[in-house]
Amino acid sequence: MSHLTIIIVSIIFLSPLAFAVTAESDTPTAYSLLQSYNFPVGILPKGVVAYDLDTTTGKFHAYFNNSCSFSLVGSYQLNYKSTISGYISENKLKKLTGVKVKVLFLWLNIVEVIRNGDEMEFSVGITSANFAIQEFLESPQCGCGFECKDSKLGSFAGRNTPFVSSS
Q1: DSSP sequence for 74-120
Q2: Residue 141 to residue 144: CA distance in whole angstroms
Q3: Quick check: 13 and 59 in contact, CB under 8 A?
Q4: Per CATH, the architecture of 19-155 is what?
Q5: Which residues form the signal peptide (predicted)?
């Protein structure tokens, strides 16, 4: 769940003042834009092809070619729709849509991500879970998460399921 916020966290904003960005342009990537709002790149999986952001409101959209699903060893299944959206500000993603986490037998929407120092808090509305920021230094890959052959980090291995109990 933690990497999803990742949710999360994908970035594109619409309005007359909004701008669209593709991977081929000289404009910052969605991942570097996340960093400019004090978020680690790993809250978004690899594969964002474009984003838009309204800098006056913080409204964003991030686009993938397809939906993106993966499992994190020992913990969660995550699903990103082909378009995710929400509002971004320094240390906060709110009103997120398009990102889900499977907790036990239920798919829950991740609705908010807050960075508090060296921790990331992910909220599904009814409960939230905190994770160390170090677990988001690398972006997971659609399909295989961190179990891909080229992944350097094995984040979440042996992770318990903090969403099971309310905080």
Answers
A1: TS-EEEEEEEEEEEEETTEEEEEEEEEEEETTEEEE--EEEEETTEE
A2: 6
A3: yes
A4: Roll (2.30)
A5: 1-20
- Round to whole Å and give the CA distance between 74 and 58: 34
Spatial separation of the C-alpha atoms in residues 111 and 150, rounded to whole Å: 30
How many H-runs (helices) and E-runs (strands) does the chain carry?
1, 10
pLDDT tens per residue, range 51-60? 999 999 999 9
Radius of gyration, CA atoms only, the chain: 14
| Alpha carbon distances (Å) from 100 to 77, 84, 123 | 8, 10, 11
Amino acid identity of 102?
A: K
Are 135 and 3 in contact by the 8 Å Cβ rule? The answer is: yes
Burial (CB count <10 Å: 0-12, 13-18, 19+), residue 147: middle
* Rounded distance between C-alpha atoms, residue 57 and residue 71, angstroms: 33
Residue range 25-30: mean pLDDT, rounded: 79
